[in-house]
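Researcher: Re-running this chain for the archive, since the previous output was lost when a drive failed. Same request as before.
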Amino acid sequence: MKTLLIAPLVLLLSACAGDYKFNTNLDGEAIDEYFKASDVAVFEGNTHPTVPYEIIGLVEGETCQESANDAPASISEARTLARRAAADKGANAILIKKCMVFEEQGQACFSRAVCVGQAIKTPEADK
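Model: Regenerated structure tokens:
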């Protein structure tokens, strides 16, 4: 009885062993580009870095609802795009000055969200 169980078990386990390769279409640089906004700390409202910082420049992020069936423009997406713009300038933090949503139709958008801020460089951004 044991012999009858061992033979199929060995056959089953040997079928799982093989030289399998994992192929992906993901590129390491593309992943770094996608996640670079997460390296930028966000300061909003009355919060500011507790360490001295250098202002690099003004950045903005903007999203647009192009058709009635699209998702509405969101402040969170606009903020993420502003963080990405700050990262492109070499900043490690951003001071969000203002975020707004425009609901009226115009300029090819049903709704629009915009965030404006200052890209800053700190010795180490507070997170």
